Amino acid sequence: MINTKNLNVFYNENKVLKDIQLEVIPGRITGIIGPNGAGKSTLIKAILNIVPHSGEILINGEVSKKQLKKIAYVEQKSDIDHTFPIKVKECVSLGTYTGLKLFQKLGAKEWSRVSEALQKVNLLDYENRQIGELSGGQFQRVLLARCLVQEADYIFLDEPFVGIDSISEKIIMDILQDLKHQGKTILIVHHDLSKVKEYFDDIIILNRELIAYGPINENFSQKNLKKAYGDNIFIGD
Predict the structure, then answer these.
(1) What proportion of the chain, given as a percentage, has pLDDT over 70?
(2) Which of 122, 155, 197, 207 has its CA 20 to 30 Å from the CA of residue 189?
(3) Above pLDDT 90, what percent of the chain?
(4) What's the angle, vertex CA 173, arms to CA 38 and CA 22, rounded to 5?
(5) pLDDT of residue 87
(6) In angstroms, rounded to a whole number, what is the distance separating the alpha carbons of residues 185 and 154?
(7) Residue among 229, 192, 232 nearest 212 (CA)
(8) In terms of residue numbers, what domain contains 28?
(9) How far, CA to CA in Å, does 133 sit from each of 125, 128, 137, 138, 192?
(10) For position 49, which CATH number holds?
(11) 203 with 214: CB under 8 angstroms?
C-alpha cells in the first residue's frame, strides 16, 4: 500500500503539489489525471524520491526510499534518448539488475526472463534490433518488458499511451490487466479522458491539490472534472 500524508512539492518557489493525502489501494490500476502543470508526473517522482518534497510517503508501512526496489518505473518517452546505441534485449535486461549483486553478470536465468518478457509484448523477433529502429509503440512495449523482468510489486507509467499505435496500446493494457490480477499495483499518468472508465479501477484527479481520489464510478464525475479542468471540460457518458 502507498500512503502520502501532507505531501508538498516545490520547484524553486512554486508549490507544484499541496497537502496531498492518499491511500492507494493495492492490486488495482489507478489513473492520475489533471490539466497540464497539475503535478501528475511530480506525484510519481515524489513517491520515487526523485524530487525534493516534504510530508510523509510510506510504501508497505515504510518510508518510500527503503522500498524503491519494489517499484518499476517507465518515464515519459520524450525523456529517453532513443538514439542510444543499445539493442532491444539489452534495454530490457536493465530491469534485471535490481536483483543482482554489484558487478554480477547476467546469467541464463536473467536472459530467459528477458526473452519471456519480449514474448509477452510480441517483440521477441526484434530482440537484436537497435531501439532507435523501433516505432513509438514498439519502444513503449520494450519499456514495459523492462518492467516485467524487474518483477516489481508496483508499476508506475508516465503517459505510456502518448504517440503510440492502437495495437501497442491494447497489448500494453492487456498485460497491465494481467499484472493487476497477479496482485500488482499500477499507477498511470494519463491524459485521454475518453479511456478512463475503460482502463482504470481508481482515479486520482489533481490540479496541484487533490481534487478527488477513489473508485471510478464514484469520483470520475463532471463536478470533479470541472474543479480540475475548469468549466469548459466535457466528457460524455
Answers:
(1) 94
(2) 122
(3) 76
(4) 40
(5) 94
(6) 5
(7) 229
(8) 2-229
(9) 13, 11, 12, 9, 27
(10) 3.40.50.300
(11) yes
Give a yes or no: residue 16 inside a domain: yes
Grid coordinates in use for 142?
520494450
- What is the value of pTM for the model shown? 0.91
Asked if the structure places residue 22 within a domain, the reply is: yes
- Identify whether the C-beta of residue 142 lies closer than 8 Å to the C-beta of residue 131: yes
pLDDT at 137 over 70: yes
Contact 147, 72 (CB under 8 A): yes
pLDDT-based confidence at residue 85 (cuts at 50, 70, 90) = confident
Q: How far apart are CA 29 and CA 163, in angstroms?
A: 21
The gap from C-alpha 118 to its chain's centroid, in whole angstroms, comes to 19
- Distance, CA of 103 to chain centre: 28
**How many structural domains compose the chain?**
1
**Is 236 within the bounds of a domain?**
no
CB atoms within 10 A of CB 106: 15
Residue 237 lies in a domain: no
